[in-house]
Design a protein that fits this description.
The chain has helices at 23-44, 49-63, and strands at residues 5-9, 17-21. It has 66 residues and is α+β, with helices and mostly antiparallel strands. The protein has one domain (5-63). Strands 1-2 form a two-stranded antiparallel sheet. The chain is elongated and about 50 Å long. The mean pLDDT is 94.
Length: 66
C-alpha cells in the first residue's frame, strides 16, 4: 500500500467505512494536477480569456454525472 488513503469507522453509522485522503495522497494529487497543467499549457495558453472560460464550462459539463 502506498498510504494515499485511510479507512475508518463512520461515527454516525457503524455499517459505513469512511475513506479519507492522507497528506501523502494530497501531495500526489497536487503533483499530478501540476503535471497536467504543464502538459496542457502549450494548448490552453493560446486561448483568450473568453475561450478559456468556454473550455472550462464545457469540461465541467462533460465531467458532471447525471
Amino acid at each position: 500500500m502506498r498510504g494515499l488513503l485511510t479507512r475508518g469507522k463512520n461515527p454516525d453509522d457503524g455499517r459505513v467505512v469512511d475513506v479519507c485522503i492522507t497528506p501523502a495522497g494530497l501531495e500526489l494529487a497536487k503533483r499530478v494536477e501540476d503535471d497536467i497543467r504543464r502538459a496542457l499549457a502549450p494548448m490552453t495558453g493560446r486561448l483568450d480569456p473568453e475561450q478559456l472560460d468556454q473550455l472550462v464550462r464545457l469540461l465541467n459539463l462533460v465531467s458532471t454525472r447525471s
